[in-house]
Design a protein that fits this description.
Strand content of chain B: under 5%
Largest interface: A-B, 43 and 38 residues
Mean pLDDT of chain C: 84
Oligomer: heterotrimer
Distance between the termini of chain C: 28 Å
Strand order of the largest sheet of chain C: 1-2
Number of domains of chain B: 1
Helix content of chain B: over 70%
CATH topology of chain B: Helix Hairpins
Strand content of chain C: under 5%
Radius of gyration of chain C: 21 Å
Shape of chain C: globular
Distance between the termini of chain B: 58 Å
Low-confidence stretches of chain B: none
Largest sheet of chain B: none
Chains: A mainly alpha (475), B mainly alpha (102), C mainly alpha (499)
Number of helices of chain C: 20
């Protein structure tokens, strides 16, 4: 049964090797096959998690810490499903864009598969070190994918990301070393003896993770990188790959956090600042992709609210929010990619009349945008409500206000986009759509956005799954 | 005594690295600076290993080895990026403030 | 009359009918005009029939209810009681009429698919609001209303429309945040807040009094934005740039009435009238309503644009509802509730006529109304009927409201309310009578021709809608004693709260 867990990482890896070894005309087909195959393993995995709470696996039966140990709990499963959905949706877009004859295809498909593999591997890590390797892999592959755009702004963005990523890694690594020195163990578990960790180690690890998760003010690499990421790359990066560091941050926090109250406050304050800064910046961007990128900065800040509100219910709310926002953000990036490819520009000012020219994309943006704002009846509202409940119960007024405000601030940039694209009278823009995206690509984006909305109407199963992800618990 | 010496050395190297990263304009120097910082971190990691019953502790060494591998691949990749950037833009530096792309 | 399954399905069906309609309309695209017209009319008809059906069920003593647990500990509840039927039937009926009007009005306009799609979704929201059985569900549909009405406000895409849209969002979303904060707080204090006559909060002890007061203020603020209570009314006059069917809908049926309905629910079913008085909130609420009534009327006097004058009139009139609810007692509460219907029908008539004036005659300003009686007799007649109804002259519906409000206020010993009512009536006269004078007693300017319509059907549809609603407003008053008249219905409702 634990083969399911292994399959989650090894199947995309196998597909990766197949793509590298086989002639390039097979790359697309093999990649699609691999990406369709691995989610199948999630079905028994989900069932097992629901039954037992968590699933663990030690590769090759080598004991931890020398061996590689993997662990899947409710939150992991939810994030894996998100990864599957977004990767597939992105692949639909990529399939149309990166057909085997095209020049970039040789590098693109292996990288895409490697990103999925790395993300999965990082998500299922059960100890700090595997997490480190996984995170590094994600960073390297993300940089490579951004660099495939092969133009100066993209390369600069990639370079910045790489340098900052390396910086983040070394902080994290130092923290990991200190954890080992202090506790003698690297497991992602409550330290034996229950003694809280030295806060230096914790701060180091958290700093490293915050760089990778793009927490304000260490977010500076994100807008350029996501803004320049070609095609569907931005979708996968924003929705999942970028969130791995955040999930890691959550886990480490819940496992190792000290009892004093200064640090949660600081992190919460950074989160609030991120929400405000990201939303304000998103309001003034001229390009659609950058609006969505800054929106991600704000979203990361929002998801940090779970730190000061530490509790299982907050974990549930934040996890649900992660899922919903993953859908919405990926949908927006995919739609933006479609628009950019079709119209040659994603400057918001030149997108008027979008609802006539590319109605599916416009609808996707609207649905995803409304989900981001957190208006009922979308999933965004459910996550927000849960966090608000927790904030109220714990009398965390600052966080309550932040959460409430985030909705208003997101509304500002979302409705700005909607107004400028759908309700602007068309001045001189022609109706022409030079390179209409394949219907499948538009539908893929739309479907993701719909997931974000529909899951708001039936949140029960996901919430129950998340409730099993007891923070700090190890089976 | 020895331990303190190593810590001091690591801190010094790290400091040089930070300085280089902040001050240097050329990407090559920034890369070298980051590598210096990484080396310092590896040194510190090794310091955390306490011999278990006389035998050296393998875990920190594994950490460091992996770290070196990752550092090497990242550096190689960064160099390739730098070369490509130079070919396309004629410069191997990152502008101070990235202007908003349009 | 109903099986248990039907009992559950009916409320849900009422809400979902227009969702289906919206999906079909959006998917069909701009070109399928006939399909769109058919879908619109059929859906509106079905919805009205369903509401009538539920109404009869409620009359027979049953209470159709639909529950769905959306979050652990949080249920979505659709529940039809007499008050729901009041609002739902108003919405459904006026949706039908406005649909006919809108089809004709927008005949040559672009983007009709988008318009009617969001139109349908808008009605979904109002149905949800009317049927909501607890505060959480209510909030859900309330926010959905904001979302679905925004595209209607910015429909024409002009800079003014977009600015109006921004203003609308600023007000309603901020109100939504306050509403959410209030709901959250209340749920934290009292658990699930189901709508029950007399409220569920009287069990809370003395120590919560201050919190309850603050929550009340938050909720009133959140609801008051849509209900256009002063000083939260700013979005309403600006939103007049929207096409006439939108103004008609927003002001008669959807947004403003939803806000007023929310306040009714708040006072009667969440807090309960007794508790509200105990907490000392009655007088502030009455004063707020009274201020809005007078302020709205005064501002209306100053407007030279017909639609803006009507907008401020709405601001003023909707607070009659609030005043009636806050005054309390059987008569005043009934007066407030029945004004939900009366004001809706009269105001929609006025907006229908204003739309005709603008579309067929190019008349948007008060001073251009000279001689309208000759140029568009039927429309002018409807306008006049509705106008005198607003002033409160029998035999139009407005008189019923004023009578009950006045007697109710005297019955509970608040005679100053009568003074407010009289002042308001005078002010209403001051801003409506000059219009009527111009329409009927002044010769049209030379060169001002008769109304021009796109075609016979449009002509009939536009003017006919106004005729229908104007006649209704008279019928309501004349047949007020009838068992099924709005007045009888609200007296039944009110007697549950004030036996």
């Amino acid at each position: 049964m634990t083969n399911a867990l292994a399959g989650v990482v090894f199947v995309p890896m196998a597909a990766l090797f197949a793509v590298i070894l086989l002639p390039s005309r097979y790359s697309r087909a093999v990649a699609i096959a691999g990406l369709l195959l691995w989610p199948i393993f999630l079905i028994p995995l989900t069932a097992m998690v629901r039954a037992e709470g968590a699933v663990t696996l030690a590769l090759g039966n080598w004991p931890v810490p020398l061996g590689i140990g993997w662990r899947v709990d409710g939150l992991t499963v939810v994030t894996l499903w998100l990864n599957a959905a977004v990767a597939l949706a992105g692949t639909v877009r990529a399939a149309g864009f990166f057909d085997p004859e095209r020049h970039g295809a040789r590098t693109y498909w292996p990288l895409w598969l490697l990103l999925v593999t790395a993300t999965n591997a990082a998500l299922v890590s059960a100890d700090l070190f595997n997490l480190y390797v996984g995170l590094e892999l994600i960073t390297l592959v993300s940089v490579a994918l951004i660099a495939t755009a092969d133009n100066v702004p993209a390369l600069r963005a990639a370079m910045r990301y790489l340098l900052l990523g390396m910086l983040g890694s070394l902080f994290y690594l130092l923290g990991v070393g200190m954890v080992y020195g202090q506790t003698g163990s690297l497991a992602l578990a409550v330290p034996a003896g229950g003694a809280a960790l030295d806060s230096t180690a914790l701060v180091l690890m958290l700093t490293g993770l915050m760089v990778k998760a793009a927490v304000f003010p260490l977010h500076v690499w994100l807008p350029d990188s996501y803004g320049q990421a070609p095609g569907p790359v931005g979708a996968l990066l924003a929705a999942v790959a970028g969130k791995v560091a955040l999930v890691a941050l959550w886990r480490i926090w819940f496992l190792f956090a000290p009892d004093d109250t200064a640090l949660p406050w600081l992190i919460g304050a950074l989160g609030s600042a991120a929400v405000v800064y990201g939303s304000l910046a998103a309001m003034v961007q001229t390009r659609l992709k950058r609006v969505v990128a800054y929106s991600s900065v704000a979203q990361v800040g929002f998801l940090l609210m779970v730190v000061p509100l530490a509790s299982p219910a907050a974990f549930q709310g934040a996890g649900f929010h992660l899922l919903v926002h993953g859908f919405a953000k990926a949908a927006m990036f995919l739609a933006a990619a479609n628009i950019l490819i079709a119209l040659g520009t994603d400057a918001v000012g030149r997108l008027s009349g979008l609802d006539k020219r590319m109605p599916l994309e416009a609808f996707t943006l609207a649905l995803a945008g409304v989900t981001l704002v957190g208006l009922p009846p979308t999933g965004g509202f459910i996550g927000k409500w849960k966090l608000l409940e927790v904030a109220w119960q714990q009398a965390g007024w600052a966080w309550l206000i932040t959460i409430l405000l985030s909705g208003l601030l997101s509304a500002a940039y979302v409705f700005r986009i909607l107004a400028m694209t759908c309700f602007h009278p068309r001045h001189s823009g022609s109706r022409a759509v030079p390179r209409k995206p394949p219907l499948a690509a538009s539908l893929a984006a739309l479907l993701l956005a719909l997931c974000g909305v529909v899951i708001g109407m039936f949140p029960g199963p996901v919430l129950r799954l998340l409730a099993l992800a007891a923070p700090g618990g190890v089976s | 005594m020895t331990a303190e010496l190593y810590v001091f050395a690591a801190a010094a190297v790290f400091g040089i690295g930070v300085h280089g990263l902040l001050i240097a304009r050329h990407l090559m120097r920034k890369l070298l600076a980051v590598n210096l910082m990484l080396s310092a971190v590896f040194l510190l990691l090794l310091l955390f290993s306490t011999p278990i019953g006389g035998k050296p502790d393998p875990i920190p060494q594994a950490l460091v080895l992996t770290g070196i591998v990752i550092a090497v691949s990242s550096t190689a990749f960064a160099l390739a990026l730098m070369v490509r950037l130079f070919r396309l833009s004629g410069r191997a530096t990152l502008p101070r403030f990235e202007p908003d792309d349009d | 009359m109903t099986t248990p399954w039907l009992n559950q399905a009916l409320p849900l069906a009422v809400v979902l009918v227009s969702v289906v309609a919206a999906v079909i309309i959006f998917a069909a695209g701009e070109e399928r005009r006939l399909l769109r017209i058919v879908v619109n009319l059929v859906a509106a008809g079905i919805k009205f029939a369903l509401v009538v059906w539920i109404g009869l069920t409620v009359l027979a003593g049953n209470a159709p209810e639909f529950r769905y647990e959306i979050l652990p500990g949080q249920e979505l509840v659709l529940h039809a009681d007499a008050l729901s039927i009041l609002f739902a039937s108003l919405s459904a009926l006026l949706w039908l009429v406005t649909t006919i009007y809108a089809i004709a009005y927008l005949e040559r306009s672009p983007n009709r698919a988008r318009f009617f799609g969001f139109f349908s979704l808008c009605v979904t929201s109002t149905m949800g609001i009317s049927m909501a059985g607890n505060l959480f569900t209510f909030f859900l549909f309330y926010e959905l209303l904001t979302l679905t009405t925004w595209p209607l406000v910015v429909h024409s895409g002009t800079p003014q429309a977009l600015a109006a849209g921004r203003s609308y969002l600023r007000y309603t979303l901020t109100g939504g945040v306050l509403f959410l904060a209030g709901v959250l707080w209340l749920y934290g204090l009292a658990g699930s807040v189901e709508f029950t006559p007399g409220g569920t909060l009287s069990g809370l002890g003395e120590e919560y009094a201050i919190q309850l007061r603050v929550i009340f203020v938050l909720l009133v603020a959140g609801m008051g934005v849509k209900a256009a209570l002063v000083p939260l009314h700013g979005w309403l006059p600006v939103a007049m740039v929207a096409p006439a069917p939108v103004s008609a809908l927003l002001h008669a049926v959807a947004v403003v009435k939803a806000g007023a309905f929310a306040l009714i629910r708040l006072v009667e079913d969440v807090y309960g009238f007794e508790l509200m008085c105990e907490l000392g909130l009655q007088l502030p609420l009455m004063l707020l309503a009274a201020t809005t009534i007078v302020f709205g009327s005064v501002r209306a006097l100053q407007q030279s644009s017909i639609k803006r004058r009507l907008a401020y009139s709405t601001v003023s009139q909707v607070s009659y509802i609030v005043l009636g609810i806050a005054t309390g007692g059987l008569l005043a509460t009934a007066g407030g509730m029945v004004h939900l219907v009366n004001q809706g029908i009269m105001k929609i008539t006025l907006f229908f006529c204003a739309g005709v004036f603008g579309l067929a005659l190019g008349v948007n300003r008060v001073k251009e109304l000279d001689g309208m009686g000759y140029r568009a007799p039927w429309t002018s007649a409807c306008f006049s009927i509705a106008a005198i109804g607003m002033i409160g002259v029998p035999p139009v519906a407005g008189f019923v409201t004023k009578w009950y409000l006045g007697s109710g206020a005297l019955a509970v010993g608040q005679p100053w309310v009568v003074a407010v009512l009289i002042t308001s009536a005078l002010l209403n006269a001051m801003y409506f009578l000059p219009l009527l004078k111009r329409i009927w007693l002044v010769r049209p300017a030379p060169g001002a021709g008769p109304a021009e319509y796109l075609g016979r059907i449009e002509h009939v549809a536009l003017v006919g809608s106004a005729v229908v609603t104007a006649s209704l407003s008279v019928a309501i008053a004349l047949l007020a004693a009838h068992r099924l008249s709005p007045l009888s219905w609200v007296l039944r409702i009110a007697s549950e709260y004030f036996p």
